[in-house]
Amino acid sequence: MTAGPVAAATSAGRGRAALIGLAVLAAALAVPAPSPADAGEDAGERLAQGPRRGPGERARREPAERPPPAAIPYFDVHNHLNARWPTPGGREEQDYDGAAAVALQAMDALGIRKMLLMPPPFPPGFRHAYDAEDFLPLIRKRPDRFGFLAGGGTLNPMIHQAARAGGEVDEALRRRFEERAEELVRMGALGFGEMTALHFSFDPATHPFLAAPPDHPLFLLLADIAARRDVAIDLHMEAVREAMPLPEGFVSPPNPRTVAPTIPAFERLLAHNPKARIVWAHAGWDNTGDWTTALSRELLARHPNLFMSIKISPESRPEHRPLRRGEGIAQEWLEMIAAFPDRFVIGTDQFFASPRAPRQIGPTRVGETARFLSLLPPELARKVGSENPRRIYKIAD
Known about the structure:
Elements: H1 3-12, H2 23-27, H3 36-39, E1 74-82, E2 84-86, E3 92-94, H4 96-110, E4 112-117, H5 132-141, E5 146-148, E6 150-151, H6 155-165, H7 171-187, E7 191-199, E8 210-211, H8 217-229, E9 232-237, E10 244-245, E11 258-259, H9 263-272, E12 277-283, H10 293-302, E13 306-310, E14 323-324, E15 328-329, H11 331-339, E16 344-346, E17 351-353, H12 367-375, H13 378-393
Parallel strand pairs: 1-4, 1-17, 4-5, 6-7, 7-9, 9-12, 12-13, 13-16
Antiparallel strand pairs: 2-3, 7-8, 10-11, 14-15
Helix pairs in contact: 1-11, 7-8
């Protein structure tokens, strides 16, 4: 692609970011301070309701503005529903239909044609973990608007339990893991997710730390299953080239004082089965300083089976965000997407909460993604927003 449309898009991108204007979404931005009882819950107790904005930082109400929809109807491939929660009496309540109604309002406002839902990457032993069985009835009601990935509530805990235990992965575990993965595909899952190889804790009381080598035997087995069944893997992983001190702003424990590298083992996973489509989630959301466009370009050039889903987030390091305040799309991002136009999709990573949920964690700033797409040159917007997700996830209308 020539430099002309890239430069033009940068110029067109200057201006103030628009925010979501639906009243129900604006109301969902308030997060109450935790009670003493909340603070005593397990570290993973509220993972299903989404992470805090950062250590000790609370989501806040934003001015209600309605952003323009994206220039084209697009697919959003990475989102969650905050639809189940524990009650004070120790029971559990669910409202997937209510959470889906909130998601649908956002989708209609922003021009999202179809959204892929998935469970977050749950830790082993989490009492309120969920997976495909829980939201499958919702998917079957609205197959025109929702698809799903699965395994975050079952396969991901199995990987992390095995990684913590160490030693060899025995044949019984491999068989159980493979049977579950096959079961999820038979249910209609378009891939496995959300999986994680390195997941920082943003809040010791509410958000767990998880780590497993990206080339763990069960990750390699998952790549083989994904290749055989022609589905994708959605992987959350912090970028760490070499061992580094824990980045500023994170607390140890539960995060380690020294963070082990992830990139070498990630490349071994990518090389293990080149037919496995692996989508590295949250491109543009960098917490270590290592996930640069230079690193992304290196890996995309070496591994044709690597794809990335873009997340527009104000919590990322400013120098690595795709959108720059007052400047539009960063030039290096435009050039990278133009160089690899078939490898990027949109995954906003929002938690759409039931109006009945006691803690309203999100969604937040979902309008920024529509703005990002509207600033791309039309041919790139069409690929990133529609053509690529259809091909990578085999999405049917």
